[in-house]
Sequence to fold (614 residues):
Amino acid sequence: MKNKSIVFALSMILFLGLACEDLAFDPQPKSNNVAVYEEFWRVFNEKYAMFDFKGVDWQNVYNQTRPLVDNTISQDSLIIVLGEMVLSLRDGHTSLINTEGQIGAVFDVEAGFPVNLNGDIIQAQYLKGNEKVLGGFTYTILPDNIGYIIFRDFLVEITDEQIDQILTELKDTQGIIIDVRGNGGGDPFGAGKLASHFTTQEVYAGYERFKTGPGKNDFVNSDFTLKPTTGVVYTKPVTVLTNRLCYSATTTFLYLMDPIPHVTFVGGRTGGGSGSVAGGQLINGWQYSLSVSEFIDARNRHLDDGIDPDILINLNENDPSKDEIIERAIEVIKN
Amino acid sequence: MRKIVLPLLVVILLTGMAVGQEESEESKATGFWELKTGVGLGRLQNLKSSQVKLRGTTIPISVYRGKISENRMYGGGLEIVAGTLTSPFNNVTDVTTSEIRVHFNYMKRLSIETSLFEAWYFGGGLELRRQSLTNELAGNNSQNSVFSNSLFAVNHFERKVRLLKKDLKLSYDFSLALLSYAKDDGSFAFSAPQTALENGEFNTQDFESGIYEHGEIVSINKFANIRSKVALHFPAKRRSSWILAYEWNLVKYSRVKNYGVANALHTISITRYIPKKQK
Fold:
């Protein structure tokens, strides 16, 4: 009899525990086309940070695209609809990839803009085989005693020791050109590290406006003041070369360098991609990414669609003898 | 690292002092070791990223050092749980989970007798828990970890039962976290703690979030951690014995309203109970 009581008591404990567990979980969602569409729309509606800046009415996008989706359409048709929604945001950080790894949509930030970069000209006319390579950096000293540093990928790890070594070798130059054309981004912390070697005092760079909740106005600003490194600092004239491929972490580097007085930007319009990126998976396993913040710089400019440099100049693609952007940067330093 | 080690040392020191005091008071306390493993069924739902309930198997390994006397029961242990959780809706979502838990408890026998249990121990516990989740397909949000220090109310009930023609001991444990210091590395949308973003502290130059930074003191309504365990203690052969148990753990926390994370684990475990040699 006592054993029965024990069994009953333990069964009740188990039952109550499981009931309690069920209360802690929301119901399992459906996995059909409509459920995937609704989840995709909702995730972007709650987390995407730049509807206002992009001028996109997401509810209107819903009204236009929702009738195109039902549970009978193919997966290919579904990804086309969702892909169009992605493209409407004109944001290179926003993407959709299906479970086979096929990209449903990625906004092409370069389309319609000049490339403004020719590696053959740089090698033949400027580096000439005299360059040194350290980590992701390629550098040399050009005629007129001007330092030239190429950095094309913020995915490559940057260390303060590397930057210290390069700037020590270039310390007697009259100025430095930093060529970040074609740098599509990577680790934004690398951008902060690099920029910190070009100022001796703290510099206010702007603020990042983060989406912190599902509501339309759930934003909080994080101010960003660049702090100088404790390592080697270069304070002579610096020009930074830009083109449309300067994106994401390179935009971070640019907005950190922009308020520094001895820095001038030369080249083509930048690509933007100012926001921090979040990723995730939809119910059916498709991967998405989206911008969950936006950066507004110290001049109160929204950066996500790119900005014009201080000196806007394009490469003459018919003249292989020189890089007009480098030539203009040299002029800026010499004057 | 120092921020983890120092509080741990304090806790170990306090536990040691308590143990030392008990030893002087009760020389009859018996020390024991428990070595445990088993298999678990895990469920995870993180509404910040998806409504899908992920499921999968986990393996626990733990070691516990305790002392028990007529009136008291106390000790501390380390548990590691690892596993993989998958989605029922596709074959690409693959979330690996690893959890490390350091826990201490101290219970005193209550002089309450019921018809169900012959002994009831009640006391407090401290748990340091860190769970790391990895989903390689979630881009910048692929890594997430949750760290919590929790103060528990701890109960242990036991009685003898006659089962399978053997005299066994049946025990039931129930623990409830009353107050926690918790930190989730992932915010509503981004891979930084919600507190850091809400305080406007994020930047991409020198932002760091050490294990104790950007956490919050939270009560049970924001951070629930419930543990329950039913165990059958088999008679000792020679010196040591076996314990067969069913354990249930539910952790639910919510930093952004309606976007909680629920994590449940059902485990069948087998434990080797090794009492200290009696002189």
In short: The mean pLDDT of chain A is 94. Chain A touches chain B through 61 residues (CB under 8 Å). Chain A has two domains: 4-106, 119-274+292-334. The longest helix of chain A spans residues 2-24.
